[in-house]
Amino acid sequence: MQIVNIGTDIEEVRRFENIDIKTLRRLFTKEELEYCLKSKNKAQHLAVRFAAKEAVFKALPFEEIALKKIEVIREQGAKPQIIVHDERAKDLIFKLSLSHTKNNAVAFVIVLKDK
Known about the structure:
- Helix 2 (30-37) packs antiparallel against helix 3.
- Strand 4 and strand 5 (104-113) form a beta hairpin.
- This protein has a single domain, classed as CATH 3.90.470.20.
- It has three helices and five strands, in the order E-H-H-H-E-E-E-E.
- The mean pLDDT is 95.
- It is an alpha+beta fold.
């Protein structure tokens, strides 16, 4: 495996406390919103997913992709994972680390490719 790039992002949770649904629908997939909005700490989950999208965006070896095409999924009992809904990302592997506190959310991503 070869490292293509890395990306990181940090977000303030409070930015996501009173964000309108129209903006949320522009940034997040339906599945991401369902997961985050059913959570007790909605703003933390939204902030950390947005940080993940930004970290991936910074690490991609190409430009011009909507944040909504970068999706954070989490299966029951599994770690969060990245799916990029773009043909240019089909050979890329994403390693993701997320963390958040009451006030901040951070994401770190490594983009890999088979040699």
